[in-house]
Amino acid sequence: MRLIAICFFVFTTITTVAQERVKKVEFYGVSKTNILHQGYEVDGDTMNISKANYGHSLIDLGILLRPSASTEIATELRLRNELGGFWGGAVSYGIRKLTLKGVVNDAIRYKVGDLDLEMTPYTLYNNDYQDVVNEATVYQMAREVIDYEHYYNGNAWRQQGVQSNFGFDLNSATFKSLDVALFSTRNKVADAASASPERLLSGGQMGLNTSYGLLMFHSVNLHDLKNTVNDLNLYYNSVNTVSATVNLPELPKFSLHYEGGTSKANYEDLTEDETLTIQDYFWNLGLSFAPSESIKLSVNGINTGPQFRSPSAQNVRLGYSSSSNVFPTLGNNLAVRNMGLLDYLYNDVLYYNTFDNQLDAYNPAFSNVMPYGLATPNRKGFSFSLDEFTIKEQLNLSSDLYIMSEIIGSGTSALKSFMKFVAKADYDYKKWSVNAGLSYESTSRDGQAYEAIELTSMLFDFGLDFDLSENISLLWGTKYHTADGNELLAVYDSYNDPLYFEPTSYSDNHQMLNSIGLMVNFNERSTLTASASSFVQQAEQEYKINQFQLLYRLNF
């Protein structure tokens, strides 16, 4: 009934606008059909099904309504039908987006409703996928489906609330302008049954543009709203940072970059009338060198305190402990199947749409050096980057090297040492397009048998595209991942302090995903991709999955 009432309101408004002939209405949308067939192979398995067919079709209809030159209302209505849902038996519908935005007096911009918020990697940041280096086109198509369904827009988090932006022209040769952005969103709904209060995310940033560069202040606060339930505990976390980019007039090819700040987390126990406060700091200082337009180098010093707490930046996208309903068990003992590269791209594993105050569980086989990005606590070291290197506008290269260590020991006085190397290459020549990426990580710690750690992992991406004609392309993609060694993985308490360390080991684990596909671009808005994939995992569990996918997308 709620959706029907909203649809009635929207279309009634549209009719009124059309009749007045003063205001403007626009329609846009996305239509997708995603069909998958998978076959499952395990030696000696007689207890589990070996075939699965599933998929869906959907239409997202977007409506832009402009009641005036300074106001815009945007909504997206969804209609989705699961594969096999005949005669409307598996149809679902809802509202995907609802946003009101406008400008007051040509000076203050505002937005109410669904917001995409992003600041810095230490404050408000949706960290990148950990199973991606430089993916092939055939996998990028599947990745775009994940991005779209989970509202992943770059490194922004989708939140609901209010946002405002405004600025001032300072009319000075040194201090040029001041820009301010503020927001407040609802991060969690109150739950009286568990005495969990409503939680808000509030903050903003202020930037001063100068003749020397940009100076910014960032603040983000995750806090419980008192008296929304019968409060037992209240949580408050604030992160405040200052960042600066300084251009050197005497050395125009060099620039300095800095961000540093503090965090403060308060855990208030109202029943005991006690408050626990956890504080720490971080800093990141870098120097960039661009000798020409085709190459840029940088080096950074990094220090992130062991008790630095930034919930909206210390997160992962994928819930590695989740499982899929597609072939959930394997073997005659019905063991839970470990997820792999194919599941992360195509199956119904858990991707987080928001964040909370707890550090997310991560998989050290994919990311152990900096699982929460630059905001990973208890890290210090250096990074060296080839940010971009272009050769004859055909070959683009980039690489990153991180040499890190712990600041304090984890369960022992000995410190872990980390190394991460990432390299990417993209090459275009006539009808050919090639991309490749490699990520290698190592973790080590000396000491007694109970504390010694030695873990290595590697992820390799490769893609090859060949244009058969102007509208038809042949696609090839490979993803290969290995992990070997051991780690003692921290399990955190409610204050994000290590409670105990769980032994985790990998015995020369391998998994590989190979795909071949054909992409047909009917026009710039309509694409059909057919692909066949083969996935093999060789680890504690060994199995194979073959897949065929048909993905059609139409933007209108």
Itemize the secondary structure elements and their pairings.
Layout: H1 2-20, E1 24-41, E2 51-68, E3 71-82, E4 91-104, E5 108-117, H2 137-149, E6 157-169, E7 175-188, E8 199-210, E9 213-224, E10 233-247, E11 254-269, E12 274-292, E13 295-304, E14 329-330, E15 335-336, H3 341-346, E16 379-391, E17 395-405, E18 417-429, E19 432-445, E20 453-467, E21 472-492, E22 498-523, E23 526-538, E24 542-555
Antiparallel strand pairs: 1-2, 1-24, 2-3, 3-4, 4-5, 5-6, 6-7, 7-8, 8-9, 9-10, 10-11, 11-12, 12-13, 13-16, 14-15, 16-17, 17-18, 18-19, 19-20, 20-21, 21-22, 22-23, 23-24
Keywords:
7% helix, Maltoporin, Chain A, 556 residues, two-stranded antiparallel ribbon, 22-stranded antiparallel barrel, mainly beta
The helix tally amounts to: 3
**Total beta-strand segments:** 24
Kindly identify the CATH topology.
Maltoporin, Chain A
For the biggest sheet, the summary is: 22 strands, antiparallel, barrel
Judging by the overall fold, what is the CATH architecture?
Beta Barrel
Tell me roughly what share of residues is in helical segments: under 10%
Q: Which sequence of SSEs, written as H and E, runs from N to C?
A: HEEEEEHEEEEEEEEEEHEEEEEEEEE
* Class from secondary-structure proportions: mainly beta
Weakly predicted, low-confidence segments = 1-6, 8-22
Taken from the alpha-carbon principal axes, the silhouette is: globular
Rg over CA atoms? 26 Å
Mean pLDDT: 92
Q: Please report which band the strand proportion falls in: under 5%, 5-15%, 15-25%, 25-35%, 35-45% or over 45%.
A: over 45%
Structural domains: how many: 1
Class in CATH?
Mainly Beta
What is the first-to-last residue Cα distance?
A: 28 Å
